[in-house]
Amino acid sequence: MNGRLIVFEGVEGCGKTSQMQLCQEWLQNLGISVVVTREPGGTPLGLDLRRLLLDAENKTIFNTTELLLYAADRSQHVEQKLKPNLEKGNIILCDRYTDSTIAYQGYGRGLDINLIKQLNAIATGGLESDLTLWLDVDIEVGLSRKRADNDIADRIELEAIAFHRRVQQGYSQLQASQEKIVRIDASLNKEAVQKMIQTTLSDRLKGWNYV
Ligand code: Z5A
Predict the structure, then answer these.
(1) Could you tell me if the CB of 190 is within 6 A of ligand 1?
(2) Distance, CA 169 to ligand 1 centroid (Å)?
């Protein structure tokens, strides 16, 4: 496959959506073909799964059921969207991927991390990100940004603060153990965060012969 998969990860309100948009514009201005997508919900089937997963009224989704629904969304996404776009040579900016499942279902819910890794391998068929940008922000800051949006909180946002802390700790441990996960200080203003992302990406784009 000729394209590259760049994943954005982090806790709620870390700024993934904002930064991916800015990044998309920047890459397009460089003449690079870019596709933006997300998990859950990057395909038509995934949109239905996303609604089920995030609906705050769904109070009886068991942890393993939740894990399998995220895996189902991912499997469909890999086959229907990621692989075809990588084959075309596109750069893909993906809002969340396998590390979200380790952070949320593994560290957050306490499910077996080795089992999650095996499930991730099945769902992705072994497709890994080329680069993962972890937008690191304090959970309180992230959640207060979301509250300021006046959005109705979804099922995961409504979890207790202790859950979000475990998720944050999960990201921290993942980053410490994997070189391809780059930490970006997402507590700064949007422009400063974008600058750091562009600096990181500029190097990679050269290495991948895009520029
Ligand atoms: N989940 C899971 O459990 N397991 C899995 O395997 C996967 C996912 C794949 C998907 O939600 C949910 O599914 C997620 C994890 C779980 N949990 N929840 N909830 P999502 O990824 O679609 O939603 P999210 O994580 O809550 O992200 P978001 O709402 O899209 O937020 P964001 O993309 O990180 O931030 P934003 O929309 O760019 O910014 C939020 C606000 O902050 C907005 O008003 C911005 O203008 C503002 N903002 C952004 N950056 C800044 C800076 N730098 N300074 C100040 N203000 C800022």
Answers:
(1) yes
(2) 17
Is 14 a pocket residue for ligand 1 (Cβ < 6 Å)? yes
First to last CA, the chain: 18
Tokens, residue 197? 């992302």
Q: What strands lie across the sheet with 91-95, from one edge to the other? A: 34-38, 91-95, 4-9, 131-136, 181-185
Q: Is the Cβ atom of 96 under 6 angstroms away from ligand 1?
A: yes
Residue 11 CA to ligand 1 center (angstroms) comes to 7
Q: Whose CA is nearest to atom 39 of ligand 1?
A: 15
- Token pair 């965060």 is found at 193
- Sequence-distant (6+) residues with CB within 8 A of 159 are 108
Express each pLDDT in 50-78 by its tens digit. Answer: 999 999 999 899 999 999 999 999 999 99
pTM: 0.97
Question: Which atom of ligand 1 is nearest the CA belonging to 192?
Answer: 53
* Domain ranges for the chain: 4-207
| Nearest of 187, 178, 189 to residue 141 by alpha carbon | 187
Distance from Cα 95 to the centre of ligand 1, integer Å: 9
The CATH number of 4-207, from 3.40.50.720, 3.40.50.300, 3.30.565.10, 3.90.25.10, is: 3.40.50.300
